[in-house]
Amino acid sequence: MASDITITRAEGTWVVRAGGAVLGESANALELHEGDMPPVIYFPRDDIAMAFLDRTDHSTHCPKKGDAAYYSIVTKSTTLENAAWSYEDPKTDAARIKDHLAFYKSDTVAVEQL
């Protein structure tokens, strides 16, 4: 059975913002497409201010990508629970997203192409 996951280099420069702060900016982001779901931008960890992220006990399992670890974003005024995730030991079809983080877009978290 062929995987319906494709991972490509995300064109241009991408930024993630939360709580009025830039958490990261990258020209090396990846774009993951899976089936009919909207694409997800994955940022290299080296391009994210990890001091703003706290790992939580939350996790999920995807049969195609593996186990996801979650992170809360700590801003000056609030903590955004489980707002980011990472596949730290992804399955073969998703191996390129190892050492990358993705963020849930919301009213308080923006993921944008510059």
From TrEMBL:
Residues 15-105 form the DUF427 domain. It holds the Pfam family NTP_transf_9. PANTHER family: BLR5716 PROTEIN (PTHR34310:SF9), DUF427 DOMAIN PROTEIN (AFU_ORTHOLOGUE AFUA_3G02220) (PTHR34310). This is Uncharacterized conserved protein, DUF427 family. It comes from Lutimaribacter pacificus.
